[in-house]
Amino acid sequence: HLCALSSTTTFVFLSTGPPVLGSLVRGKVGQDITVPCFYSVKRTEDITSMCWGRDNCPASKCYRTIIWTDGWKVTQQHSSRYTLKGNLLTGDVSLTIVNAEEADGGTYCCRVEIPGLFNDQMSNHEVVIEKGDISTASPHTYTPEQTS
C-alpha cells in the first residue's frame, strides 16, 4: 500500500491589482494530486460558476480551460483525468489530477465567478510533478517543505 505523498504550500502572488492567492503543490508521477481551491458558501444563493484552466488567471474566464461548473455540477470537462471530488455545494472546488504525468506540471488557475465588477476570486497554483521511483521509495518517509 503506497501513501499519497503530496505537499501543499500556500502563498500570495504580488500584483498591482487585488491579491491573487495560490499554492505550490508537489506530487509524484502516477499519484492522484489535489490542488486546493475553496470559496465561501453561506447560503444557496452563494453557489456560483467557476473554471479551472492552465496558466495564470487571465482578465476573465480561464485560459486553456480544463473544467467548468455551473456551481452545482461539472458542465465541461477536458479529460476524465481532471475531476472535482469535493462537495461543490459547500464551495470545495479543489481539482484532482488523476494518475499524474510529468506534463501535468505547471500553473493552474482556479477562478470563481462572483457577481459584480472585478469580484471574481482567482488563485494561481503551481503544480510540480516529480518522477516517482516506486520500487525504491520508502512510502512513509516524507519531509514537508520549510516555509519562511
Structure, explained:
This is HAVR1 protein. Residues 18-130 form the Ig-like domain. Belongs to the immunoglobulin superfamily. TIM family. 0% of the residues lie in helices and 38% in strands. Strand 1 (7-13) and strand 2 form a beta hairpin. The protein has 148 residues and is an all-beta fold. The protein has a domain at 23-113: Immunoglobulin-like (Sandwich), CATH 2.60.40. The model is unreliable at 1-6, 11-17 and 135-144 (pLDDT under 50). The protein has no helices and 10 strands.
Secondary structure layout plus pairing:
Elements lengths: L6 E7 L6 E9 L4 E3 L14 E5 L10 E5 L4 E4 L4 E3 L10 E3 L8 E7 L8 E10 L18
Parallel strand pairs: 2-10
Antiparallel strand pairs: 1-2, 3-8, 4-5, 4-9, 5-6, 7-8, 9-10
Task: Give a brief outline of the structure.
With 148 residues, this protein is mainly β. The protein has strands at 7-13, 20-28, 33-35, 50-54, 65-69, 74-77, 82-84, 95-97, 106-112, 121-130. The protein has a domain at 23-113: Sandwich (Immunoglobulin-like).
Keywords, separated by commas or semicolons:
148 residues, mainly beta, Immunoglobulin-like, 7-stranded mixed beta sheet, 3-stranded antiparallel beta sheet, 0% helix, glycoprotein, Ig_V-set, signal
